Amino acid sequence: MQNNNYLFTSESVSEGHPDKVCDRISDMVVDSYLSKDPVSRVACETLATTNKVVLAGETRGPKIEKDELIAKIRNCIKDIGYDQDGFSWKTANIETYLHEQSTDIAMGVDSKDNKDEGAGDQGIMFGYACNETDELMPAPIHYSHKILRLMAEDRKSGNLKGIEPDSKSQVTMFYENEKPVKVTSVVISTQHSKDLNQEKVREAIIPYIKKSIPENFLTDLNPDEIYINPTGQFIIGGPDGDTGLTGRKIIVDTYGGAAPHGGGAFSGKDPTKVDRSAAYASRYLAKNIVAAGVSEKCLIQLAYAIGVSKPLSIFIKLANGDETKVEKVKKIIDENFNLSPRGIREMLKLNSPIYEVTSAYGHFGRKPTNNGQFTWEKTDKTELFKL
């Protein structure tokens, strides 16, 4: 028998986390190429360690000088907030090793002889939505992101003093009949200046829990279950404290473990890579299905083969009791959505420099902007799915 009462936990990491520094830089590279040529190809990886950044990967498109990229990398580090002895936007040693995309990959992906272009790689991608929050995201990951995002905003504005860029959050919620009803614990670890003791750190951070999580979820939260820097001081952090790499926070980037993940990272990849674009498309479909009231939850899987334009399979799972609607939903998708790589890019307008902002605080559950960012978060297809 299924247990409908349980605890579930999700974590987030801030833009100053070493891996997120790398995601930011890799997505900046994608945007830099797409801003010059919307059909550029980019697969970029970044490594960051003590006062050093290394860029590597494959590109096809306009020539961008190393000095221009290095200047943009420094701007990324500066905006995140790193000007420390162990990692500084001013003094970091930056090396770039980008080179031309493999002709073998290009041959399988390019369109030719009136044939639609194929997927940039094989793989499986998942999209998910649920009605636990207004953004149709699982509650634990949504609140974990929000805590760190609000901290970062105040840190950058000067309203949160003594707190440095590297931080992590974790929210545990009790589910009753599969619905989140209360928060049972919160963990926040944050880098801080040497001038702050742990009592002052706790005093500075506790308000962000209350700002981020609705009061009705916090009523029964025991103060002893709020863990702020549980190991003690956290002065050395960021890439000086731990090496960062692009693509290591894929669960943070998606649904906090509440839904499956296909395994592919997003950051550093142009939208011909279905790791990214098909994950966005599947979220778009799932979100519109839930927003239309078809089901309280929707999970969608898309599968692709390199060089093949159409999905090999589409899997749909709705909440218990809604299984009879799956075939109707599948028919609506088949008749109204072109899920080829090109179809996805045109539908969601993905060939634009819109990716740097996605690199921290989740790719999903965000607000679409007038600049074309987060188009996959729109709920403009709900009428199609009303059964």
What does this structure look like?
The structure is a single chain. This protein is an alpha+beta fold and 387 residues long. It is built from twelve helices and 13 strands. The strands form four sheets. The protein has a four-stranded mixed beta sheet. Strands 6-3-2-11 form a four-stranded mixed beta sheet. A hairpin with a 2-residue loop joins strand 4 and strand 5. Helix 1 (18-36) packs across helix 2 (66-80), helix 4 (139-157) crosses helix 5 and helix 9 packs across helix 11. The mean pLDDT is 94.
Helix tally equals 12
Name the helix and strand elements from N-terminus to C-terminus, one letter apiece.
EHEEHEEEHEHEEHHEHEHHEEHHH
The overall pLDDT, averaged over residues, is 94
- Characterize the overall form: flat
The class by helix and strand makeup works out as: alpha+beta
Largest sheet at a glance? 4 strands, mixed
Helix content: 25-40%
Report the sheet-strand fraction. 15-25%
Question: Which sequence of strands runs across the widest sheet?
Answer: 1-8-9-10
N- to C-terminal separation?
30 Å
Determine Rg (CA atoms, Å): 21 Å
Number of strands: 13
Low-confidence stretches: none
